[in-house]
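Sharing a chain and its predicted structure for anyone who wants a worked example. Both blocks are below, sequence first, tokens second.
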Amino acid sequence: MKNKTCTVFLLGLFALDPILSYSLYLRNKVLVQTFPVRIQDLARVEHARQDAETLSQKVVIASLEEPLYLTADRFKEALKDTPLERVFGAGVWVVPLTGTLEGTGLKDRLEAEIRTREGGNVYLQSHVVRLDSTARLSLPVSARSLIFQFPASLRSFSAGRRVLAVDIMGQEKPGKNPRVLHRQQIGLWIYKKKQVAVAKHDLAMGHRLKSDDFELVEKEIDGDDARYASGNLVGLRVMQNVKTGDVLLRSVVQAMPLIRRGQQLTLVVQKPGIVLKSRSVALSDAESGGTLRVRPLLPGGQNRSGVTARVIDEDHAVLEGP
């Protein structure tokens, strides 16, 4: 709205009836949801003659698309031909809230704002933003004065429940820092896209995972992605029963020794032209393909010092030699 519009209305306020002297006490800020704006919306009128036509009902602004700052000097200039004694206050902000932004329109505006940030396009490729059903903004019709208060880095805008501040800004005059005129908040959920392991069929507790037990599926997660099992899961055990379609969490899938200390196993001795097998006891834990110390069980309870062997499955270790 051009400044002269307000002045035109103000100049025409007092042409009807003469009144006694009066003063205006300006409000600091006025949030306007319906037009027109009247004197009583912007200021308190004092000392006006009681039987004069009510000043407070006079129209000042018929419509407005952007926040407007009316200084005390503007009022004085517009009312110089009336018995105005004094204007109290430096000025009043008029903030129109006749526009709305919600639903798809709000989501599109939010994503457009994210794209203007550093790394915004990459962020939206790996994240999904969903608004609360009640998310709604009241704003000036033009919406140019809106500022979405994102974190300094989108890395901090991580998955989970978030509340985002949205400010309507205004600048009293050129060269002066803009100020927040009105702050609103919208609730939203941030989901991160992640490849997670999903069970292809029921898995019993203690089952050791094979490649055909699970598949990688893209999911939208709303929390710490460290909760989800990742990396090479083949050979790991499930610590509880898992249903078909369940996501494999880190707390459910754990690396456990294929062979445990104290477990009996078969030691296979391989040498050129000969293969010997002996029942033995594991002296340490070991995974498949790893090495461990084992002690062969000799007849009659005789002891033998431990040897190092390579694990080939949960019941066998091999001692390889020239």
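Comments welcome. The longest strand covers residues 179-199.
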